[in-house]
Amino acid sequence: MGKLFDMTGQVAVVTGSSRGIGKAIAHRMAEHGASVVISSRKQDACDAAAAEINGLVRRDACVARAANISSKEDLQGLADFALTTFGKVTALVCNAASNPYYGPMLGIADEQFVKILMNNVVSNHWLIQMLSPQMLERGEGSVTIISSIGGLKASTVIGAYNVSKAADLQLARNLSAEFGPKGVRVNCICPGLIKTDFARALWENPDTLKMATAGSSLKRIGEPDEIAGMAVFLASPAGTFTTGQAMVIDGGAVIV
Ligand SMILES: NC(=O)c1ccc[n+]([C@@H]2O[C@H](COP(=O)([O-])OP(=O)(O)OC[C@H]3O[C@@H](n4cnc5c(N)ncnc54)[C@H](OP(=O)(O)O)[C@@H]3O)[C@@H](O)[C@H]2O)c1
């Protein structure tokens, strides 16, 4: 393997990595040489994902630690676990998010809006606050937030989620400016429709899927690995001049 995408010696923490996009990111980062901390709400699901990736990549590539992103205490536990286990974290991927409400902005309950903003924005900010000081001290590291093309578009059904994903783009820009002088980069990835449990309602039925992908160049849904490649890029030597960006990977949905 060439060195451009080599993550040997790096330590990645990926939230929401027991399945879907997060698991693909954990797998591909491990495959490119990183040690990876797998995390989601359920320890058994994290253990299973770590065992599966270790079986595919190498025996000690991944370790697992449950953390609910709603809990600041859980996130501190995750950060402490990663630092105690590996002595450093060089690549943080804030991937887990929630969307408990579908419907017009006019109908959303306060608790639902607050939960979306807390889980999708403030939790990312918390984990970055916990893990970026050691990156800034060493003068190296990357933070990648999984936003969404929803953060670039209007919506009449997932409006609050889109507000949270737009806020992630701004969080990355702010932190990019704040951390850049010390050598730490912060970016977002904005996936389009990807075949995971999160978007199941949009792809399970072939007719719904056809409608959901009609307005894109490639006319198809994406696979988690098609996002994982960008995450590896951003954390590896190939991405060292990239910061503050919203990397759109959507099969040409936003541009059509
Ligand atoms: N799929 C798409 O079409 C799409 C498009 C644009 C953006 N995205 C974004 O991509 C990211 C990943 O989505 P996905 O499609 O891969 O979802 P997914 O397949 O449903 O996986 C979600 C992962 O997050 C974990 N998780 C859920 N709630 C959590 C919480 N409160 N605390 C910690 N972990 C939690 C889940 O495990 P547990 O259940 O064990 O906690 C699982 O590992 C999200 O930020 C989403 O907004 C997805």
Q: Considering DSSP H and I runs of 4 or more, what fraction of the residues is helical?
A: 40-55%
Helix and strand run: EHEHEHEHEHEHHHE
The residue ranges in which pLDDT falls below 50 over 5 or more consecutive positions are none
Percentage of β-strand residues:
5-15%
Q: How far apart lie the N and C ends?
A: 36 Å
**Averaged pLDDT:** 98
The strands making up the biggest β-sheet line up spatially as 3-2-1-4-5-6-7
The count of DSSP E runs of length 2 or more, i.e. the number of strands, is 7
Question: Class by helix and strand content?
Answer: alpha/beta
Structure description:
The chain is of the alpha/beta class. The radius of gyration is 17 Å and the shape is globular. The chain is built from eight helices and seven strands. Strand 1 (about 10-15), helix 1 (about 20-30) and strand 2 form a beta-alpha-beta unit. The mean pLDDT is about 100. The termini are far apart. The protein has a seven-stranded parallel β-sheet with strand order 3-2-1-4-5-6-7, with helices on both faces. The relative contact order is 0.15. It has helices spanning about 20-30, 45-55, 70-85, 110-140, 160-180, 200-205, 205-215, 225-235, and strands at about 10-15, 35-40, 60-65, 90-95, 140-145, 185-190, 245-250. The longest helix is centred in the middle third of the chain and has 29 residues, at about 110-140. Helix content is about 45%, strand content about 15%. The protein binds NADP nicotinamide-adenine-dinucleotide phosphate.
